[in-house]
Amino acid sequence: MNIRRSIRIIFRSKTYSLLNIVGLAIGITSAALIFLWVESKVNFNKAIPNSRNIYVSAYHYYPGSGECITSFESNNLLAKALDDDFPEVKSCARYNSETLVFVPENTTNSFEEKGAYADSSLFNMIGMEFIYGDISYVFEPQYSIILSRSMARKIYGNENPIGKGLVNEGAIYQVTGVFEDMPDNTSFQFEWLIPFRIMEQKVKKVFDIGEWGASWLHTYVELEPGVDLKLLNDKLDKLSFLKAGPTYKSFHIFLYPLNRMLLYGQYKNGVETGGGYIKTVSLFFLIGVLILLIACINFMNLSTARSQKRALEVGVRKTFGTKRKYLIRQFLVESGLITSIALLLSVGLIWLSLPLFNEFIGVRLSFSLLNPTIVIGLLVIGLFCTFLAGSYPALYLSSYNPLATLKMQKVSKGGSAAWIRQGLVVFQFTMAFILICSTFVIYLQIQLIQKRDIGIVKDNLVSFSVTAELYNSSSAVLNELRNTGVVEKCGFSANQILNSSMKTNPWVWNGKDPEDDAYVSVNFVSEGLIGAAGIKLIDGTDIDPTKKNNKGEAGVLINETLAKRMGKEGRIGGQIGQSAERKWEIVGIMKDFVFDDFYAIEPASALFFYDPKRTNLLFVRLKPDIETYKAIGQVQTVLRSFTPYHAFEPTFMTDDFDRLFENEHLVEKLSALFAVLAIFISCLGLLGLSAFSAEQRTKEIGIRKVLGAKIIDILFLLGKAYMVLLLISFVIGIPVSLYAGTRYLKDYAYRIVLSWNIFVGVALLITLIALLTVSFQSLKAAIANPVKSIKTE
Q1: Strand 617-622 relative to strand 487-493: parallel, antiparallel, unpaired?
Q2: Beta-carbon contacts of residue 124 (< 8 Å; ≥ 6 apart)
Q3: Residue 429 to residue 25: CA distance in whole angstroms
Q4: How far apart are CA 568 and CA 184, in angstroms?
Q5: Distance CA 646, CA 667 (A)
Q6: How many other CB atoms are there within 10 angstroms of residue 550's CB atom?
Q7: Quick check: 621 and 489 in contact, CB under 8 A?
Q8: Which ranges does the record mark as transmembrane (predicted)?
Q9: What is the 8-class DSSP label of residue 591?
Q10: In this structure, are residues 505 and 248 in contact, taking their beta carbons and an 8 Å threshold?
Q11: Greatest Cα pair distance in the chain
């Protein structure tokens, strides 16, 4: 084995070596970026020291209709019951995340940060490290708050913030601790924590938190080591029934492993599907492997295509007694050297591209050669490429018969190597075709949903968080806003219009089908809310707080879907309630609007109560002919006149809507990026093969030109073989893409129809790119001087 000889051989063919190195480097870089992302998802929550013993509470609910609903939420009573009655449980922590605006005491600065209300037991459960403050004391003061290092530094710089005050909605929270920032790759992303008892006080104003059926928070549970989860879940199964009686016999509580939550936490009819985010992760792991395969195929193709130039070398060395195993080793060394150079180049490319990649997909991946996992991963990729890319050329070239090769008979026939080369080209472009088709399917599906008429007008709709002063003076606030001249309509709401966090059951009305036990999504609103959201009334009127029944309650609004469920009672003047003793009169029927599941063909049932004091958001529709930020400034002025200490940062409905499709957009972006890279790497190989083909047929081209062939004829001659290969790849790729697209779309009730336009368009695009690639070398050969090309030595 002579490494210097291998280096000389590599640098002797600079063009082909460069194509191999660049193709492999781009392939390794692409695959490495994908694998970094895959690794971050596979290891999600594993940065928490004891994550394997931490679980999240969930429940199955079996309504009378028979379909099971699974929710990863719990009621307020579960944590205490687990602590008191289950020795298997080491600790429990209630948790509810929220984004709040804080104003440092005696200042006018405001800081909007995501945080959570939690029990102090969470600190040790997830391994929080404190910089300032006593872990056993920080939640003792009634209104206490602890901050992350980043938030403390943002507000107070390098000053110790202990004892400082932060104002939120009139309450002054005392800073009692500062903790190290939580790792990015966990479920616990918060900049502040406030005792959960404060959240209890807030929620009590909205509904009875002592109900076992009122699920609105997360309960995290740490078990003692060695606990049998199945046996514990069997004990938990009837807990609601045992604690609250027969009313809750259809609620079945269970614990689910935190480490599995992201990837596998998907249920259908009470059964874990084995799917979830793991499908996306598996898809991109496969794409990473395919990108590596495509890059290795370039190496194999170019190596076997240039076999004639190496044939004499092999023949001579075999004649002088070199054994085949030494030749195989030599070719693998050459492959290893090229792969090593490509690997070193890819390390630099990863460093350069990672910040752009993070920004592109909205994550914070890190790359460090001090991380053993990353180093081992790169070495595995290098060995994979070395043996995959180098094995076939090594076995093929070392198999030449020395007598035949010295007479130039073996390689002149091409034979099996040419067929394998063509098959590999077909494989490359088939994979590229499938990736690009998949990208288009995902893009078109997202566009279908985003252009769907959801019954809500998103443009110019802005929301603000609500303070106690605002909802206590709701009528005055609404009147002041309407008088600004920049507001078209406005109203208060308990929930985001696009999401419903309150689904309740059962409901009763006259003539109800006994089998109908489906949920109804409930919202608490003020007058003007449906107008601000752009929801249309098809019958009746908006909620009018001045018109009340004999119990002092305003009427309710229902949507079309609920009206149809109610049959004859689903009309203006009809009544609906949660018991026969307490019902509300229907004053208006809203046109259906889509919320929660934007892929559903028919929206869910919705019911709106009048109750501004239970609201959390103010929705304002701005007039379209006024500059947006000027209008927002006037709205903020009005709101601050009621609550001077609050910043009132706006949230645009269009942004909220886009955030609902973050996962789909991520899949679309990654698919598009790596589809482009796949076609680029494939074209690098095609460029090398076309250059070699033109070089091999130099004399033939010269003779044809002398005999009168035109440039276009030469281009057709050199390109037609590749066009046939592309056609074969399309024939294979279309049914595979159709199958993959159908599988992807089957999870969506509201979906696009796959048409031939997608496949034909992608085929034409790839054909155009391939033609441009091949034509670059073919044109050089076609315009060359024929006298030089046919001149003999």
Answers
A1: antiparallel
A2: 91, 135
A3: 19
A4: 53
A5: 38
A6: 5
A7: yes
A8: 21-38, 281-300, 331-354, 374-397, 418-444, 670-693, 714-736, 748-772
A9: P
A10: no
A11: 111
DSSP secondary structure letter of residue 74: B
Q: How confident is the model at residue 634 (pLDDT cuts 50, 70, 90)?
A: very high
How many residues would you count in the chain? 793
Is the domain of 783 the same as that of 750? yes
Return the beta strands (E) in 591-670 as ranges.
606-610, 617-622, 651-652
* Structural tokens at position 69: 């609903």
Sign of CA dihedral 178, 179, 184, 187: negative
Q: Which of 226, 242, 273 is the last residue of a domain?
A: 273
Statement: residue 776 has pLDDT above 80:
no
* Residue 593 φ/ψ, nearest 5 degrees: -130, 150
pLDDT, position 677 = 85
The pLDDT score that the predictor gives to residue 412 is: 46
622 and 708 share a domain?
A: no
Helix (H, G, I), strand (E, B) or coil at 114: strand
Residue with tokens 């079945």: 252
Q: Return the bridge partners of 127, or none.
A: none
Q: What is the pTM of this model?
A: 0.79
- State how far the Cα of 727 lies from the Cα of 105, in Å rounded to an integer: 71
Question: Each residue of 446-485: b (16+ CB within 10 Å) or e?
Answer: beebbeeebbbbbebbbbbbbbebbbeebeebbebbbebe
Residue predicted with more confidence, 733 or 297: 733
Band of residue 5 on the pLDDT scale cut at 50, 70, 90 = low
State which H helix or E strand residue 487 sits in: strand 487-493
Q: How many domains does the chain have?
A: 3
Instruction: Compute CA distances 184 → 154, 645, 667, whole Å.
Output: 18, 31, 20
- Say how far apart CA 757 and CA 742 lie, in whole Å: 15
HSE-CB for 472 with a 13 A CA cutoff: 7
pLDDT of 392 higher than 80? no
Over residues 525-538, the pLDDT tens digits come to 999 999 999 999 99
Backbone angles phi, psi at 637, to 5 degrees: -60, -45
DSSP track, 531-567: HHHTPPEEEE----TT-B-TTS-B-EEEEHHHHHHHG
**At residue 285, what is the residue type?**
F
Residues 447 and 555 in one domain: no
Integer Rg of the chain from CA: 34
**CA–CA separation, 467 and 472 (whole Å):** 9
Residues 156 and 208 in one domain: yes
pLDDT digit string (tens) for 565-585?
A: 989 998 998 889 877 777 888
- Cβ contact 538:473 at 8 Å: no
Kindly state whether residue 490 falls inside one of the protein's structural domains: yes
Could you tell me if 625 and 498 lie in one domain? yes
Please indicate, yes or no, if residue 334 is contained in any of the structural domains: no
Question: Is residue 690 in a domain?
Answer: yes
Tell whether 708 is covered by a domain.
yes
CB–CB of 395/328 below 8 Å? yes
Tell me the residue range of the domain where 168 lies. 52-273
